[in-house]
Amino acid sequence: xxxxxxxxxxxxxxxxxxxxxxxxxxxxxxxxxxxxxxxxxxxxxxxxxxxxxxxxxxxxxxxxxxxxxxxxxxxxxxxxxxxxxxxxxxxxxxxxxxxxxxxxxxxxxxxxxxxxxxxxxxxxxxxxxxxxxxxxxxxxxxxxxxxxxxxxxxxxxxxxxxxxxxxxxxxxxxxxxxxxxxxxxxxxxxxxxxxxxxxxxxxxxxxxxxxxxxxxxxxxxxxxxxxxxxxxxxxxxxxxxxxxxxxxxxxxxxxxxxxxxxxxxxxxxxxxxxxxxxxxxxxxxxxxxxxxxxxxxxxxxxxxxxxxx
Length: 309
Description:
Elements: H1 5-12, H2 18-34, E1 41-44, E2 59-63, H3 65-70, H4 76-84, E3 89-93, H5 99-106, E4 111-112, H6 121-124, E5 138-142, H7 147-150, H8 153-161, E6 167-171, E7 185-186, H9 192-199, E8 205-208, H10 218-225, E9 230-233, H11 236-239, E10 249-251, H12 254-264, H13 267-284, H14 288-302
Parallel strand pairs: 1-2, 2-3, 3-4, 5-6, 5-8, 6-7, 8-9, 9-10
Helix pairs in contact: 1-2, 10-13
């Protein structure tokens, strides 16, 4: 099911949209019932656990940042608890900052185990030698274009970029009608291959000033794996992966943002923070194979099997 499908209906549609949302739930329930030859449900996103059949089979349910928004809806926690009743369940957020609120909501009926996603090895292979950056300095913002995802990016950047001292290159699909300043270089959607080959090796860093309910943004992890420093807003999801002035820079004012840009345009600081970011994600997250191993451990616990079986 497309990411955000059901929760998008539930959060953004008037009451006339609910029948379509419930139709999607019924369709998913039918799929669950037809596919019975398995040991464990692996369900992506809490919304997709709502129609679980009452068959007692164990379930692993992944959680992203948007799922925490879903839990604010009336009766949603009760509905999900009902879906978990009578089965072993593991709720697996992809970031540790979600662990505590999920423990409070579901810790008595499911195990809460953070399972971070992995990173494709190709990102770790990117080379960013000192002195390879573009002149003037080139900064990247890779995001869906919505008001919440952009945050104060344009307002804070305008006096810092509107003079050709540095450039801001913006990538991503336009999902809301957003007026783009003429000093922003907007490229539209971008492929991972383009970022890896054309942009990450020569950029100063990645900027994200999002106000969105982030989980653990994958583009940030890929940038860190490539040794690309990040300037990010003060969100739990960002603070979960960035240690300020060690593996990136966190800021919550235009003044702090300006200082971060200036600091990371020093080649030695840029290299030091980029290398520290790469080491952190390599040791803490690894690759998708490492992520798969983490999920297998959860499967075994749900099935009552030892890890070395």
